[in-house]
Design a protein that fits this description.
This protein has 346 residues and is of the alpha+beta class. The chain is 39% helix and 23% strand. The strands form three sheets. The protein has an eight-stranded mixed β-sheet, sandwiched between helices. It has a five-stranded mixed β-sheet with strand order 12-11-13-15-14. The chain has a two-stranded antiparallel ribbon with strand order 1-2. 50% of the residues are buried.
Length: 346
Amino acid sequence: MIPSGERARILAAVRACHARIVRDVRAHLAPLVARGDWERAMAARGEGVGDLVYEIDAAAERSVERLARDLGRIAPTRLLCEGIGEVVTGRGEPRLRVLVDPVDGTRNRMADLRSAFALTGIAVERGGEPLTTSDIEIAVQTEIPPSDRTHAIQLVASRGEGCRRAALPLSRLGAPSRGVPLRAPRRVDVRSGYYSFLRYLPHERAAIAEIEVAFFERARRIGVDPRRVYDDQWLCAAGQLALVASGRMRMFADLRAHLAARAGAKTIASHPYDVCTALVATEAGAVVLGGDFETLAAPLDLTTDVSVIAFPNEAARRALEPVLRETLTAHEANAVARLRADSARA
C-alpha cells in the first residue's frame, strides 16, 4: 500500500502533470484550429513505443518526463509511457510502477471533434513480481476538452476508497479538488441505450460487425430493441469506460485483440496504458473484464494487446454477458476466418 503521506504528494504531482498536458495540447492545437489547418493538426510524427505518435502526443511528452522526476523525489519510480518508453528515477530499486498515456483519444482530439484524456495509474512494486492493472492503487483521468470548452472533468480513484469526479476550470486543473463521488447506477435499462463494439481498422470492421449483429439478434430475447440501440465509436478506451461508469454506455466491448490473436492478424488494439485508469470505473461500481470474461488484469507493460468488456453494474453483466458469450461461441470461428481473409487483402 502507498502510505497516506506519499499518496497526497503523488496525487499533487500527477494533477500538476495533467494540467501541463492539457495546457500544452491546447496551446499546440489552438492556432491550427483557429485557421482550420487540419492537415497540421492531424499530422503524425512517426512510430513510438506502443503506437503511432502524433504531433499532439509529442506536445504532451515533456510533462511526463517531468512527472517521472517529480515522482522519483517521492519514491524510486519506474514510469512506463506510451511513446516515451521506460524511465527510471530516484535512488534504489523502484518502489512505484507508473503507467501513463499522455493523450488517450488522440485521433478525436487532434481533429477537435471531442475530448481525449490524460491517464495515470500507479501501483507498488513487489520485488520484481509481475504486476497487472488489478494492482493499481491510484488512478487519475483528466479530460483534454475540445477548443470551445473552458472546463474539464477530472476523475480520481483510490483502491477501496471509491472514485470522485470534479468539473474544474482549466486554470485550476492542477489544484486539489475533492469533487463529488462518482457512482455507477445500480439499475440501467439494457433494453435500450448505447452499446459499443469498437472497430477501428477497415479490415476488421466486417468481422466485428458480424459478431455485433448476431449479439443483438440474440439480445432480443431479453427485450433489447434494436431500434433503440445506439453506437459510439469514440476511439478512447478510458472515455468509453467512463461512459460505462456513468450508466450511459450499457456495454463496451473492445474485442480487437482477442479476435486478432486468433486470426493471426494485425490490429491497433488497446494496450495496458489505455486501461490504466480502469480503477476509476471499478471503484465507481462498474464491471470491467478482459477478453476472457475474467476481471481485467492486463500486465503493466507497454506492448500487450488488451481486450476489454465492461458493464455499468452486476445486474447489467448478468443480463448481457451470457448473450455475448453465446454469440462468441456461435460466431467467433466465422468472424476469425473473415478477419484473417480481410487482413490478408489489406
